[in-house]
Amino acid sequence: MIAAEREMEPKMSNKATTVLEAHPMNGGDGTYSYTKNSYYQREAANVAQTLIGDVIAMKLDINEFASSSTNAFCIADLGCSVGPNTFVSVENILEAIKHKYRSECMSSQTREFQVFFNDHAGNDFNTLFAKFPPTRNYFAAGVPGSFHGRLFPKSSLHVVHSSYATHWLSKVPEELTDKNSPAWNKGKIHYTTAPEEVVNAYAAQFTKDMAAFLEARAQELVVGGMMILILPAVPTGIPHSRVPNGVMFDFMGSILIDMAKEGVISEAEVDSFNLPVYTTSPKEMGELVERNGRFHIEQMESTSPWLEIKHSNSDYGKTLSMSLRAGMEGVLRSHFGSEITNQLFNRLCDQSGQLTRQLQESCCREGTQLFVALKRI
Question: Is the pTM of this model over 0.90?
Answer without folding.
Answer: yes
